[in-house]
Fold this protein.
Amino acid sequence: MPITKVKDEELLDRLTDVFRTHGFEGASLSRISEATGLQRASLYHRFPGGKEEMAQAVLERAGQWLGNRVLAPLSGPGKPADRIRKMAHELHLFYGGGKHSCLLDSLSFGFEESTIKRHVREGMGAWVEALAKVAREAGVSPKKARQQAQDAISLLQGGLVMARVLNDTGPFERTLANLPHVILNN
Amino acid sequence: MPITKVKDEELLDRLTDVFRTHGFEGASLSRISEATGLQRASLYHRFPGGKEEMAQAVLERAGQWLGNRVLAPLSGPGKPADRIRKMAHELHLFYGGGKHSCLLDSLSFGFEESTIKRHVREGMGAWVEALAKVAREAGVSPKKARQQAQDAISLLQGGLVMARVLNDTGPFERTLANLPHVILNN
DNA sequence: GTCTATAGCTTGATAGAC
DNA sequence: GTCTATCAAGCTATAGAC
């Protein structure tokens, strides 16, 4: 037996899957245990803070993905439309072509303010701001840039909801293809 | 003491609130009991099928609202743009200006196929189809009508997600105002 | 680092008095 | 129709062996 039964990366992958499929309250330790192949006690060894810490670790990693694969390319070199197409490709991969739900959706239910909700809010806020910045760089007015960035996020999030409900990833994928137009339209 | 402590309508109102705020798994009987003012046993007297039946009753009522306040006006008399504005007004009321989440979102987590998920799917499907029909009546090509209907639902659902996460109902309300353009654009 | 076993609480659901 | 009291099962979390 190896020192660790499941590597950190794969463990976080599976945790991510459970949380975005079932939400925080629906992600019971039984489901997590089954999905990861680790018993309860082993999970607590890795995450002494329990379920809350697992969710935070998942969000932290998603935040890194957002920074490295979305925000960085968006503020990198290249034509604005190309940067957005690059992001769309990363989103296509991350969301399994629309088959996976977004943590920003699944982990935002319940009204009590928490570290998790703050983390989710920061992620979405940074995303909107990065999109608006690209639009401004492409010559869109600040006000319109902000609105079009919001529209893009709405279309993406709503597209994922539709995919989950209707079992149809078409709208989400079409939104990915239209992102440059939605964000840069002048 | 009146025969019933809480009237059916108000009971369903409060149940709706709990389910769309916390999702199905997060809507514990403790929360439901607190929100409705009824003890567990009283809830089971009204809904012998338990939590599942409560959620179904909530969805059934939401389906009636959808039919009476959204689908009916959409297929009624009047100019297409006016019908859509009428719907937008009803949506504004139903979602508390964006402060309330949508049941189609909150009750669609978890992958196991269920009566609830089927109910949710039918609701969203009928909504998309009704919007596409209005667009076609306004002269939009069938293909474009379908896409613009999907975009409208995506924008609405995503706007509600954004509102919940960012605590900002602006994008949702702006989408409501833009609905005629989104759906009827030729 | 993983496991079995278990503690203690919360869950969904029921029985029976009023 | 509502309530108190209760149940078994599920939950999160912990102790301690290997």
